Amino acid sequence: MSTYSLITPSMRAAVESTTSVGPCTVERGAILRFARAIGDPNPLFNDEAASRETPYGGLIAPPTFLRSLTPAIPPLPDGDTVPRVLDGGSAWKYHSPVRPGDEITAVTRLESLTQRTGRLGPMLLAQYVTGYTDRQGELLAVQQNTIIRTR
Amino acid sequence: MKPQVSFDGVRVGDQLPSLERRPTAQQLVMYAGASGDYYQIHYDPEFAQGQGLQGVVVHGALKSAFLGQLVTDWIGLEGRLLELSARYREMDTPNDVLTCRGVVTERWSERGQHLVRCELWIENGNGVRTTTGEALVSLPSWS
């Protein structure tokens, strides 16, 4: 068994770099479509009138809605050398709910790259952290995401 | 509307009401569109097989959304979801029945907040835990 590195110099150089998306205005229709797609009938995510009567005072987005603002596969230099991509998981911290009209900027930082050997042979684990802030600069949520890439 | 769960009534070991979901191929396409995740392993069987998979697989993030629903259904309008995590341990395939479950592992109060931590997981139709995770919520207290 040879041990070779999947991590190219360009990849290595990208660690701790950030990419930014937005600001994007959250559309009511996008929230409704997302709630329907995940099949969650909660009135908070689906019913403007009903959600107005709740402590939230109006429609809010489902907890994972912010995924729709950023690319599903975060950018990685030389990514085509490890084209098979799997999502390893996410960890969210929530500070404020996302509402229609919010103007959100998502900043994703590549935290680390590590190589491991798994069922599929050598694999690259890329850890990303994305912070989502509104126009006032208030942090709404943070997502940690692990992306697994193999040859 | 179901009664609001309160911190006072929650004990370590309590199970969250389970949630059954059966994602269809159509739902995966809807999720791809709504989330912007157009990675072909979620709707193109030939592409998925070329990637070494048996066929198309359920988006991990859709399974996170199911776990989110499990928790937000439970905490109701007065509860707040503070943290939600999921690790995708095994692939799930469309039309399998996925059962989302949770159990309370910790409860404490600090700085006026009444906090509850839950272990979460999704079982496929064979009872395998394909996804595991955690949630941290705050709940209202009547006392």
Describe the structure.
The complex is a heterodimer of chains A (about 150) and B (about 140). Chain A has helices at about 10-15, 30-40, 45, 50, and strands at about 20-25, 85-95, 105-120, 120-135, 140-150. Chain A is α+β, with helices and mostly antiparallel strands. Chain A has a domain at about 10-25 and about 70-150: Thiol Ester Dehydrase, Chain A, CATH 3.10.129. In chain A, strand 4 and strand 5 form a beta hairpin. A 5-stranded antiparallel beta sheet of chain B has the order 1-3-4-5-2, covered by helices on one side. Chain B has a domain at about 5-20 and about 60-140: Roll (Thiol Ester Dehydrase, Chain A). The model of chain B has no long low-confidence stretch (mean pLDDT about 95). Chain B has about 140 residues and is of the alpha+beta class. Chain B contains 3 helices and 5 strands. The chains are: A alpha+beta (about 150), B alpha+beta (about 140). The interface of A and B includes residues 55 and 86 of A. Strand 2 of chain A pairs antiparallel with strand 2 (about 80-90) of chain B, so a sheet runs across the interface.
- Mean pLDDT level of chain B: 96
The CATH topology of the domain at 9-26 and 70-150 in chain A corresponds to Thiol Ester Dehydrase, Chain A
| Biggest sheet overview of chain B | 5 strands, antiparallel
What fraction of residues of chain A sit in β-strands? Answer: 35-45%
Strand order of the largest sheet of chain B: 1-3-4-5-2
Overall shape of chain B: it is elongated
Q: How far apart are the termini of chain B? A: 23 Å
| Count of beta strands of chain A | 5
Class per helix and strand makeup of chain B? alpha+beta
How many β-strands of chain B, per DSSP?
Answer: 5
Overall pLDDT of chain A? 94
Number of helices of chain A: 4
How big is the Rg of chain A? 18 Å
Structural class of chain A: alpha+beta
Assigned CATH architecture of the domain at 7-22 and 59-138 in chain B: Roll
